Amino acid sequence: MTPAVSQVLADLAGRVARNAAPNVPAADRAGELGLSALLLGLAAEMWDGAAEILVQENTDLRALLAAGAKVWGEESRRRWLEALAQGRDESLRLSALQSANGELKVALIALHAELERRDDPAAKALESQVWRALVAASDRRRLSGSPV
Amino acid sequence: MEEAELVQRLGAYAAARMPQAQDVAVTEIARITGGASRQTYRFTLVWTEGGEARRRGLILRRDPADSLIDTERRVEFEAYRAFHGGEVPVPEMLWLEEGEEALGSPFFVAAEIAGFQAGTGPLWTAPYQESLPALGRRKWTILGQIARADPTALGLVAVLPATRAEDVWLRELDHWEGVLDADETEPLPVIRAAIRWLRANPPPPAQKVAVVHGDYRTGNFLYDTQGGIHGVLDWEMCHLGDPLEDLGWSFNPVWYFGQGKPGGLLPRDEAVAAWEAASGLTAAPDALKWWELFACVKGQAIWVSSARTWLDGANRDPILVYPAWALIDAQDRAALKVMGHL
User: Average pLDDT of chain B?
Assistant: First the structure.
């Protein structure tokens, strides 16, 4: 959810107020308010589940990184994954959850690339888990009107 | 710029471009919503010439402060001009202004093609629904005609950067990965995996270096109720490249519009057949798969750029938020689907 819902709602509030002025051309007003309504609908759909989605995703990512630390032999990488895997979502603010999610995903991308490079069964099994987690994350984030 | 000022300045500009005309004025101006990379207006130009009152419906495409797609408006203008009058239907281009003096930002003016739909909203309802297969065949036939066109004969090699058949994939992938690197607002594991796969499995050299429209999809052409197409629009990402790039983009699952088939119009095999028949080229499955996955990377780069543009604050148009919110996960899903994980 980037840009953040809170930022977008604040912007839309100003936009709706400006469009309440009587001298706004009708076509401009229709366009702006139509788009604003579309975004408000998306925000309404995303808002309630946003924190839960991020908490669940962060939990899954930490589990993958913990597993990754066991198969990645290189010391500094192993410690990096372990440290991230031991993290917790102390705050349920969306901005904090999103920030943690970003850190975890950076590590996941590195782990995923490492797993792709390797042929051993443990790496391949974990790579399959990574794909399953990516599909699950995408399923959770899927909006009702998603074209895919 | 307020509408009254725009009307006055546009009228003055048109008058200067039409020395044979008197009493030139802009009337009935209205913004067409939906464009995220250009501000588009419909207007009527009225004037007197040889004592006779005249009027013409025109389109103004003006660059906003910061657009979704960074492009040269000359590329778009010249692409339209190159195809005008041929088998690929496009609107007639009239004036290109690359400076900021006239209207505050670069723009071009084109003839309006009136009376047809461009938005996807009406497509899956009566009376359009009946003609979807015909519209689909026409859509991919025109795309094949674009692929078949000779960029040298069209004069586009003077405008579009040159490329080699064996390098086109790398140039495009480098470019869009660079956009992601610059504009990414959060890490994208699916798309980064897609990029690694694309680099590890390069496509064969392009069958020819062709004109690539760059954004050929349902929603970017004017259609009627009978399955006819009267204008191919939005050429701002036009370039020279592999013609399979356009075919792959047209098959991007985000352009299925929930209808279960490419463009929401036609089964995939029929679309490929129409394209192959019109282009005289072959859509080899492995090469096409590469370009379909590339389309997912390119799409994601565009949606991410949209979010970045909004966040940077130069342009807070709500249309920039829509792709970021509605399409980033959908594009991930599309990539997962093309890679066989969904």
Answer: 93
